[in-house]
Amino acid sequence: MTIPKTVNPDLANERKKATFDVEEFTAFIHDGESFLQLKRLAEEELFSDLPDPVELDYLSYEDYYNRTVEQCVNAITKVRAMQERVNPGGLEVYHTLMTGPMGTTLMPGGTPMGVHFLMFTRALKNQGTPEQYEKFGRRADNCEILGTYVQTELGHGTYLRGLETRADYDRQTDEFVLNTPKLTSYKWWPGGLGNTVNHCIVVAQLYIDDEPMGLQLFFLQVRDEQTHKALPGIDIGDIGKKIGLQAVNNGYLGLTNVRIPRTNMLMKNAKVLPDGTFVKSPVSQLAYFPMVFVRCMIVLVNSGFHAMAATIATRYSAVRRQSPIKPDEPEPQVLDHVTQQMKIVPEIVTAIAYRLAGVKLNKMYEETASAVGLSDYSRLPELHALACTLKASCTYDSTFGIERLRLACGGHGYLASANFGNIFTWATAACTYEGENSVLYLQVGKILLKTWGDMLSGKPLMPTMAYLGVCASWHEFPEWTGDWQCLVQALQYAATNKTLIASKSYTRRLESGLSPPDAFNVTGIELTQAAELHGRAFVANNFFEEVTQNRENRSASLNNLLEQLLELYLVHTVQRHMADILRFIHLTDEHLTSLQDRLETVLAELRPNLVAICDGFDFHDKVLSSVLGCYDGNVYERIFEAAKKSPLNQRDVPASFAQHLKPFMRSSL
Ligand SMILES: CCCCCCCC/C=C\CCCCCCCC(=O)SCCNC(=O)CCNC(=O)[C@H](O)C(C)(C)COP(=O)(O)OP(=O)(O)OC[C@H]1O[C@@H](n2cnc3c(N)ncnc32)[C@H](O)[C@@H]1OP(=O)(O)O
Ligand SMILES: Cc1cc2nc3c(=O)[nH]c(=O)nc-3n(C[C@H](O)[C@H](O)[C@H](O)COP(=O)(O)OP(=O)(O)OC[C@H]3O[C@@H](n4cnc5c(N)ncnc54)[C@H](O)[C@@H]3O)c2cc1C
Q1: C-alpha–C-alpha distance, residues 399 and 423, integer Å
Q2: pLDDT given at position 44
Q3: Each residue of 512-557: pLDDT tens digit?
Q4: 437 lines ligand 1 (CB under 6 A)
């Protein structure tokens, strides 16, 4: 099957209808030109000799892994050469590769080196002393060694204080002795641990003279650098096939009396001196900082997955024609069915809203990390709360949004070659890794409770929670104007009142004699609802600020488009949380009808721009890797071409016919 060189006329027509400059939108959504240029440069170099993704789909588990390692090594080699040219010593090219969905193109089943870059190298730099960085970190940055972040165990992932891996200090030899005493203490899940890395950071309980000193991070070699065989005392391997991310090579690790020098404990914060004196970290949560970084990153990465799926569904819906709206007219593009727009457009705007929130969150991370560098730890709780709530709601919304977008593509959405399967499994994994979502919402719930107490006692509130004080001071919600400010405030007001209710329930339970932990547990449902609304109010407010500020730096047509996107996002989000809002704000039927009218109006206004908006996400065809989502819209030819590549189509008759079908059909005669 040859793929036409021309663009599908329906898609070409859609692009002509665009009312804004796609390139200007692209720069806006990528937070400026420099990241965009780098991304495009990297794509040009990295995608020049990629193998066919359809071929990858049919490989065995082992071949898939080996092929991914090959692609990963080729990509990293090119990326390092590029970095040398762009800004020697910098890391922006790595960063570009890792934070965009681009990495997933090179490694559709995930990468066994992702955790090396995201966590291992960063933890060595940020949790180690400068000497430790020179000794271990530089080799990791140069990829002379490969590592991963080994925290989760078979028995515990969430409750870190319950981890069982021990590091006992031996004063005589100035060493730690590492052990995983039980089956449940086996490390389980770390990416790349299975067969790829030769080093890692192990999170273990430190013991000095059998006294527990809390969790610490230890640099550990697990495999010989030459032979790649496991070192003595180390039991290591792959945890087996998962529902996706087949090439991430998640592994297990058992340790029996493995000795490492005292100087292998990462000692930027807590320290163990040669005589066994333990010097505490100024803030114990600093050991959790590598996780905070990844939570922030996930918001960007998952909003990218969401936008990929939205692009595939939008382009396909512009090409797919079915079911005349009026009986005597030709079949329309399915995108003209209003219910189809309702399936797709809220996902487009949600991806944009999280992208903007993710950019803001990552800036906040950088500011907090700089402050931590100057021994100012005051912003850690605020960053922790925001990272937790945005990580949880973004991964949830993207996961279920991607599934809705797949369903919006009908039968062909179910083809592996449409690529929704990979995109979904990437997205949903993030609901669990780096902190299971409910657990993260409970962290936020706890901080909301505390903040509520602070507010009642007149203490200043952290900036991203200051609205609680404002909304709590209102006797009732101000007059419903329905404008954007009002819609944002409605979400904030609902979050505030949900916090109030949770706080009251918690206090009532304490007063009835429950212990604080029991009271917290039974208030969990209300607390997690408050936490979720808090995050959604942040995303809405941030979108509102992005669109209404700096207007003079953008063209009128882009401002107009962004206003429509904001309008849809706010109306849709308020409708989605209407049950919560109606509990606290009196709305008439007229108000509700007006919201529905606005939703339908803005859907119609956005309709001509949908393909152009998705073009503006700037996904290379190889990133989308979808027969339904290609830029040229030659969908049917690509579906057919992919089918032709099925191994079952490579010979006239499969072996199972002679072996099984033929005798079976004879015997049943
Ligand atoms: C080359 C190309 C690449 C291409 C790539 C393509 C894209 C691929 C994309 C992406 C790949 C990404 C791959 C990811 C890999 C995943 C990795 C992992 O999963 S690593 C494991 C994560 N494990 C968790 O996250 C455990 C979750 N558990 C916890 O974090 C804790 O145990 C927690 C928070 C649930 C409880 O911890 P407590 O028991 O110590 O804490 P309490 O008692 O609740 O809190 C104590 C105090 O500490 C504060 N706190 C807790 N955590 C904090 C934090 N992080 N920062 C600041 N404060 C914190 C709390 O607010 C509380 O504060 P007060 O005392 O009330 O004031
Ligand atoms: C693809 C993937 C990659 C991963 N990569 C790594 C890695 O590189 N390194 C690493 O160390 N780990 C890694 N992990 C492990 C991951 O971080 C953990 O699985 C995750 O933190 C969740 O912990 P858990 O599995 O113990 O879940 P559990 O805590 O057992 O969750 C089970 C259920 O219990 C509930 N629950 C647990 N505690 C509470 C509570 N306090 N209150 C209310 N409900 C609760 C949860 O909400 C959930 O519904 C990875 C996991 C996956 C899936």
Answers
A1: 9
A2: 86
A3: 999 999 999 999 999 999 999 999 999 999 999 999 999 999 999 9
A4: no
The alpha carbon of 657 and the centre of ligand 1 are apart by a number of angstroms equal to: 53
Q: Which stretches does DSSP call E strand in 428-498? A: none
pLDDT at 175 (0 to 100):
98
> Cα 179 from chain centroid?
32
Q: How far is the CA of 160 from the centre of ligand 1 (A)?
A: 9
Q: How far is the CA of 238 from the centre of ligand 2 (A)?
A: 18
**621 phi/psi in degrees, rounded to 5:** -55, -35
Query: 377 CB under 6 A from ligand 1?
Result: no
> Are domains 145-281 and 458-603 of this chain identical in fold?
no
Quote the CA–CA distance of 238 and 243 in Å, as a whole number: 15
Give backbone dihedrals phi and psi of 214, rounded to 5 degrees, phi first.
95, 175
Three-class HEC string of 104-132:
HHHCCCCCCCHHHHHHHHHHHHHHCCHHH
Q: Which CATH architecture has domain 458-603?
A: Up-down Bundle (1.20)
- Is 0.95 exceeded by the ipTM? yes
Ligand 1 contact via 381 beta carbon (within 6 Å): yes
pLDDT at position 433 is 97
Whether residue 161 has its Cβ less than 6 Å from ligand 1: yes
* 76-90 average pLDDT score: 83
Residue-range domain boundaries for the chain: 145-281, 458-603
Q: What number of H helices and E strands is found in the chain?
A: 28, 11
What are the E-state strand segments in 234-273? 234-238, 251-255, 258-261, 271-272
Has residue 190 got a pLDDT over 70?
yes
DSSP state of 1: -
Measure the CA–CA gap between 142 and 250, rounded to whole angstroms. Answer: 22
Query: Which residues, at least 6 apart from 272, have a Cβ–Cβ distance to it below 8 Å?
Result: 169, 206, 208, 213, 262, 265, 278, 279
CATH 2.102.10.10 fits 145-281, yes or no: no
Measured in degrees and rounded to the nearest 5, phi and psi for residue 234 equal: -115, 125
Dihedral pair phi/psi, residue 568, rounded to 5°? -65, -45
- Average confidence (pLDDT) over 73-97: 80
| Nearest atom (ligand 2) to Cα of 442 | 42
**Å from CA of 437 to ligand 2 middle:** 9
Q: Which positions are catalytic?
A: 434
> Among 392, 423, 399, which Cα is nearest to 347's?
399
The reply to whether ligand 1 has any atom less than 6 angstroms from the CB of 288 is yes
Residues 599-650 pLDDT 10s: 999 999 999 999 999 999 999 999 999 999 999 999 999 999 999 999 999 9
Q: How far is the CA of 434 from the centre of ligand 1 (A)?
A: 6
- Ligand 2 atom closest to the Cα of residue 110 is 1
Query: Mean pLDDT throughout 268-293?
Result: 93
Closest C-alpha residue for ligand 2 atom 17: 433
For the chain, the helix, strand and coil percentages under 3-state DSSP, each to the nearest 5: 60, 10, 30
Q: Is the CB of 147 under 6 A from ligand 2?
A: no
